[in-house]
């Protein structure tokens, strides 16, 4: 994974499956200095711009988090 530095709590989110409950805390983070280069990405990973989010499928919970935490994206 990438090293991050949590900066600010944004929201709590929860999702319940038939057999499992997720309780999540969502934070705005920044990359640690060593992780801020393209070479630091694990194989198969890529950055995407906010305007590219519509090109990918996300579970409903993650869409709700994205919409609440990144207005206008």
Write a structural description:
This protein is an alpha+beta fold. The longest helix is centred in the last third of the chain and has 10 residues, at 60-69. The chain has one domain (4-69). It is 14% helix and 33% strand. It has one helix at 60-69, and strands at 4-16, 21-31.
Q: Which helices and strands, and how do they pair?
A:
Layout: E1 4-16, E2 21-31, H1 60-69
Concise overview:
With 73 residues, the chain is α+β, with helices and mostly antiparallel strands. 14% of the residues lie in helices and 33% in strands.
Instruction: Note the main sheet.
Output: 2 strands, antiparallel
The amount of helix comes to 10-25%
Give the termini separation: 25 Å
Number of E-type strands: 2
**What is the N-to-C order of secondary-structure elements (H for helix, E for strand)?**
EEH
pLDDT averaged over residues = 86
Which structural class fits the helix and strand makeup?
alpha+beta
Features:
alpha+beta; 14% helix; two-stranded antiparallel ribbon; single chain; 73 residues
